[in-house]
Amino acid sequence: MKANKASVKDLKNAAARRLFLEKELKVKLAAISQMNFTDADVAGHNIENLIGSTQIPLGIAGPIAINYPLISKLYYLPLATTEGALVASISRGAKAITTTGGAIVTLNTVGITRGPVFKTKNITHSHDTQKLIAKNLPKLQVIAKATSSHIKLTKIDINFVGKNLYCRFYFDTTDAMGMNMATFASQEICEAIEKLTGATLISLAGNYDTDKKPSWLNFINGRGKQVWAEITLTKKIVKEILKTTPEKVVQIVQTKQHLGSLMSGSLGMNAHFANIIAAIFIATGQDPAHVVEGSIGITTAEVETNGNLYFSIYLPSLIIGTVGGGTPLPTQTEALKIIGAKDANELARVIGAAVLAGELSLTASLAQGSLAHAHKTLARKKS
After folding, report:
1. I want to staple 224 with a disulfide (CB 3.0 to 4.6 A). Which of 142, 160, 319, 339 is the partner?
2. What is the pTM of this model?
3. Residue 334 bears catalytic tag
4. What share of the chain has pLDDT > 90, as a percent?
5. Among 157, 287, 302, 334, which one carries the catalytic annotation?
6. Domain-by-domain residue ranges, the chain?
7. 58-109+224-378 adopts what CATH topology?
8. Active-site residue, selected from the candidate residues 41, 83, 172, 334
């Protein structure tokens, strides 16, 4: 089939592109045409060649209690998903956590990273370049700051192999996810490094970030936000709400999350972190590609001496923001209002608690042997 002389990219708006496709492909795009934003709302920063929007069912889980110093706050969780049983499962975990008194959630801001690669003359030049970059960190921090008042270069990790030198720039971008800000700042920093050291920039992104890919570097050093969440559940709550026992939950964590992950070579040791993170990311306008980094965390569990269940999760690389990206879009803005997080740190805590709830419930379902029944009941359309 020969392409028409007209091109989708040359057309001026979404309506014209849809009409072009309908004629070219002989299809109707009535559902795709339904948008709650205009071309101007997203052009130039969210998408190119806009033709419409895709709707995903949005459910609500919770409330879930999270404990802060001196207070316990309740949150509702907006979840965009097409997987039946997911919202119900997270809701069950949230009920168990809230009935117990709330999750404890802590975090550390590592910052967004950008990892360029330079070409040097030899390993001696690589060593000298490494030293010069470290020595001139204050100067490079000033250069980064000049690109935006909302970004700060905090540190630089450097490694090299032969003539290839890799940098990992760490940036604090406040409440923005900040990948674009980091890219802009990194371009200016790299140009300064070239002049300072005589090394030549090969690629602004050299996979030493590591952005949108699972990696041991992100697992070990962290990226974005590192988040920890925990809960201790009585035997009674485990029995009444989760329909199992602490011993069976611990057995599932040890054999599935830990040993099963080792046997399969998985980077993450968890049941389904990505499920919860994807649902919240899509609902609140985060970059869905960063779900892959959120999937690499660890679940732990143990039976305490009094017979209660201790259960925790660790997210080493949670990439989120409350401003920029897809967060200003209408439905995403409303979803963020449902959560009510005042900043990115609070949103990270809520996501950590949500992951704790979802992980707890699925693990309990596996321990109880109810996984297939739950999906048969909630995830299969009745004929």
Report:
1. 319
2. 0.94
3. no
4. 91
5. 287
6. 10-55, 58-109+224-378, 116-203
7. 3.90.770
8. 83
